[in-house]
Design brief:
By secondary structure, the chain is α/β, with parallel strands linked by helices. The chain is built from 17 helices and 21 strands. A hairpin with an 8-residue loop joins strand 10 and strand 11. Helix 13 packs across helix 14. The N terminus is likely disordered. The structure holds zinc ion.
């Protein structure tokens, strides 16, 4: 922690979140088509005891899905969904202070559990002279050293809780930034709660189980290749969703997506912001009609203000940003006030550590303690994202604290010599996972036909890792670029707080020059 313990109570981000400014009563600058419904719903519902989780409220159709169909279709994660959503609804109606109190109790339970049942934390606490029962303030908590990915990589077998049997725990992985994924273990009983928390954030954007959702998401390799008719029926008619790949975007692909949008008529578009912004630019410029959903949800990478502007202009609806990590699930989401993202205090205890020498004022590194996963406690885990502290109290009245914009993994788009675009965000989790010997990766497009890959080799690194990496990259980029691979000792976060996995120095002008050559 960058601050003295005596002051850290105030200076740490944790407390900064707890500090509350004067209530902001201003309405979101929202004059779009759907905005009247928001304003009305907010003033009538969110202040009343009958506060709804959504400005739209859920309809009979959604209630059937929430109570019966979703639990029947996906019993492993959606059983008891209705009760969980109702409880989360109750939590958000508590005051911020009541939620902090509950959260602190839950944190203390987790610390004691970690100490009692995992060899790793037993040693870590003993080495630092920490007794979990004597951690009574955020300042005490800071005596526990932050957990890094390297810690997890080196100590997986001593990190899981002996309250469970090893084979009971579910394997998961950390998300891809420049780092390679690290294996995590999850207690099965936390997964349905994490799912409910994610869906609870979705309800703020007007999305409920059973709604038609168009996903602009990931790479084609993520979806079933040549799916069976059963899978297609399940996905399209029971789950009511369509997936559109973002790994390669060009006018033909975007036009086919416009046609799909018009035919499917989704209530929600759920997307990575970069590909969605590209799609919206296309919609604005193509001169053909297109269907507009009720709202759009963006996650997986920070939503840039210019992207938000483009998406809102094209779709004419509000955008809801959500923040999560594969390591934890969703932990924060935007409400209809769009004044930052609310953290769900039940899912994670979030600390913000000021970054010294940062270019951005108020920049803090995020440390997360997962309050739900007792299978492998992650305490003060460095997720490698930053945020700007927000001192505002949201006008929506929810008792969940706010954080400002996430400054984390940012990815540029790659422009290829034939004019196709490969959004960097499509590569993040897919490319590095094929080369377990590579610890970190950064892809830099120097010229339109030349890309440099910087990598940090791990202990098990071999030439196969580079061969597999090259093969995987070719799937995305074709044969049109020349690759160079460069071994490096470390890939650091930039002073702006950004972790950049994909960097492109190529502009549209370079494409024109290449074409005229
Ligand atoms: Zn709010």
């Amino acid at each position: 922690m960058a601050t003295e313990t005596g002051e850290s109570d105030v200076a740490s981000g944790y407390s900064t979140i707890r500090e509350t400014g004067s209530p902001n009563t201003g309405l979101a600058p929202d004059t779009r088509r759907e905005s009247a419904r928001y304003v009305n719903a907010r003033t009538s519902d969110f202040r009343s005891p009958r506060m709804s989780t959504s400005p739209y409220g859920s309809r009979l159709w959604n209630q059937i899905y929430t109570s019966w169909l979703a639990p029947a279709l996906i019993p492993g994660t959606h059983r008891g969904l209705r009760q969980r959503l109702q409880r989360l609804d109750q939590l958000q109606k508590l005051s911020l202070e009541q939620n902090w109190e509950l959260q602190w109790q839950s944190l203390q339970r987790l610390l004691q559990h970690a100490y009692d049942t995992t060899p790793f934390y037993k040693k870590r606490f003993d080495d630092s002279g920490i007794e979990p029962s004597r951690i009574t303030s955020p300042a005490d908590l800071e005596r526990i050293p932050p957990l890094t990915r390297q810690d997890i990589r080196n100590n997986l077998e001593s990190l899981w809780s002996r309250r469970y049997r090893r084979e009971e725990l579910l394997a998961a992985a950390t998300g891809g930034t420049t780092d390679s994924p690290v294996q995590l273990l999850r207690a099965p009983d936390c997964v349905d709660e994490k799912v409910a928390i994610q869906l609870h954030f979705d309800t703020w954007a007007g999305m409920w189980p059973g709604d038609k959702v168009l996903y602009l998401w990931g790479a084609r390799s993520d979806y079933a290749q040549d799916p069976s008719w059963r899978w297609r029926f399940y996905d399209r008619y029971l789950m009511r969703r369509i997936w559109l790949a973002t790994s390669l975007l060009n006018p033909q692909v975007l036009e086919s997506y416009r046609v799909t949008l018009n035919r499917f008529r989704p209530r929600i578009i759920y997307a990575y912001p970069t590909p969605l912004a590209i799609f919206c630019e296309y919609l604005l410029s193509c001169g053909r009609p297109y269907f507009r959903p009720v709202s759009a949800i963006c996650t997986a990478e920070p939503l840039m203000p210019s992207q938000r502007e483009t998406i809102e202009k094209a779709l004419g609806v509000p955008i809801f940003e959500k923040y999560g990590a594969r390591d934890f699930g969703m932990i924060a989401g935007e409400c209809e006030q769009h004044q930052g993202m609310h953290l769900n205090p039940e899912s994670a205890y979030v600390e913000l550590r000021p970054v010294e020498g940062a270019e951005v004022q108020g920049l803090c590194e995020i440390l997360i303690t997962d309050l739900l996963n007792y299978g492998m406690p992650l305490i003060r885990y460095k997720v490698n994202d930053c945020t700007v502290v927000s001192s505002e109290r949201c006008a929506c009245g929810r008792g969940f604290p706010l954080i400002g914009q996430i400054i984390g993994r940012t990815t540029d788009n790659f422009l290829l010599p034939n004019g196709d675009v490969v959004p960097g965000v499509s590569l993040t989790n897919r490319v590095i996972q094929v080369c377990p010997g590579i610890r970190k990766l950064q892809i830099i497009q120097e010229k339109i036909d030349s890309i440099r890959v910087r990598y940090v080799a791990g202990e098990s690194f071999s030439a196969d890792d580079l061969a597999n990496l090259q093969k995987k990259l070719n799937i995305f980029f074709g044969q049109s670029v020349h690759w160079t691979f460069e071994k490096t000792e470390e890939i650091e976060r930039e002073r702006s707080g950004k972790t950049r996995m994909c960097i492109s120095r190529v502009t549209a002008r370079d494409l024109k020059q290449a074409e005229t050559r």
